[in-house]
Each structure stands twice: as C-alpha cells, then as structure tokens.
User: What shape does this take?
Amino acid sequence: MPPPAEDTTLSSLLRQGHYHPAATLAATTLTSTPDLPPSQIFSLFYTRLACLAITGHDAIAAQESLALGDIHSPFYFPKAQYGEEACILPWHLRVLATRFQALAAAEPRREAQGYYDLAAYARGQCKLSVAAHAKGLWKSRLKDLGSRTTNALVAMGDLSGARRLLETFISATEDKEEEKEVLKGWVAMLCLRMGDVEGARKSVDARTRESNNEVLEALFLMAEDRYEEAVSAWRGLLDGKHDVLARHNTAVSLIYTGELAEAAKILEDMVHAGHAFRALTFNLTTVHELRSEPGRREKVLRD
Assistant: This one.
C-alpha cells in the first residue's frame, strides 16, 4: 500500500485504509483547531479511538478514553428528559468507550456491566420512539449490545454465562428462524470451546446442521481429536465462502498431525495474501517454535 500524500484529508485516509496516519491526523485536528463544535469533537475522538483499535494500540486507546469520564454522567444529558437526542455523545462513541474504559480499569466485568447499562437506555429509547425506523434502529443496537456482551463474557472466561445469554436470545427470537440458526451455531461454538462436544451436537437442530453442516462437522472432528479426518473435511471447504476459516483450521489440524512444514506454508501464504488476525499470528509463531525445538514439539504433540 503506497504511503498517503501529505495533504490527504481524514476521510480519504480512512477510505484508503491508512488507519495509523488517520489516528494521528484526528489527534492533531483535535488539539490544534480552536472552537470545534461538540459534534465534530466527538466524531474526531471516535475516529481516533477506532483507528487505534484497528492498528492494535488498545492500551493507548484505553488511556485516552478516560478523558470522557463517566459516559452516563448528567453532563452528557443536558436535556431535562431522555429523548432520542438526549445524550450529546454519539452512540457509537459510547459503545467504544465502554470497552476501552473497562480495559483501562483492568476490570473485564465492567465492560459487560457497561453494555447492560447501555441496553437499559436503548430499551427506554425504543419504547419512546414512535417512528418505525427509530424503533428498528434501537432494536438493532440492542442486538449489537447482546453480541458485545457475549464477547465480553467469553473474554473474561465466563463461557457458561455467555452460553446462557445466547440461549436467552434464542428463546426471545420468535419468528426469525434465520437469526435463530445463527445463534444456535454460536452456542455450538461455545460448547466446543468448553469441551462439551455432546452439548454442541444437542444445541443444533437438523436445520442448523443443514445450513452449516460441513463447518460444524469439521469442528466436531477437531474437538474429538480426529485431526486427520478434520484435515480432509477442511480441505473440502477451500476456495468456498468459508475459505479463510478452512485454510486456518486446515493448518491447525496439520499441526496436531505433525505436518508442521505444510502447516507453516499455509499460514505464511495467508499472511502474504493480506490476512491478519490474532489466532493466525499466534499459530504461525507456534509452528515456527515447534519446528525449531524438536523436544518441545514432541511434548506438545504428545500432550
């Protein structure tokens, strides 16, 4: 990716994927431009935090988010009563600040609690809204908060709590079968992470299995330590809509079958293709460590 021009605007930096320069420009604009209206200040601040998150600078974003103070403070609600525009903080900034302020305080539970607080506000706004599009907006925000709360519970190791929350969402989703199937798939993934293969199989019905059959079956094979069969299953999904997932899990399965050179090549090819996520980096590092330390390799594979 070519470097951005010196006179590039913030919007063009974001459009071109230059997130680090965008974070810098947002901070420069905030600190050097006098008399910015509150709406622009909050927009720039959100851009700054979001770009720091994308570029992996969570610790910096967490410290900077503390400048907002208590996002539920009356200071941010200048109107006497809650209304659709009662809070002067944009919704997306409030959500992002909830995550980063919990990170800064080193209190994982605070993130989940913050999402619950936002959900209570969103439910109140949904009840107050008259227009259909406004109700739909707040309902979509509630669903997003549900996903974020689940992720927060998983991150702090409360997998059973995350599972119960997802099952609550399933029972609350009445006539939307497609959403139910997605949620059931998530429950199955959580069960697999907990080591409950039987629970994972029970959590998905015939319809869910039909729509995600090949992916779920490949994951079940891995959970049951049937890695050679899992390699074949994942290879059957290559070049399809689950290509990235299939390639990564093919490499992981190959690690457990002892095919480290092939696993390393798959992971390295993914990096060269522009893919970047923590599991990919971790597994690639692990492969190189195992290849350079035969003794450790034998111990890990044996365990």
The mean pLDDT is 85. The CA atoms of residues 22 and 28 lie 10 Å apart. DSSP finds 16 helices and no strands in the chain. The two ends are 42 Å apart (CA to CA).
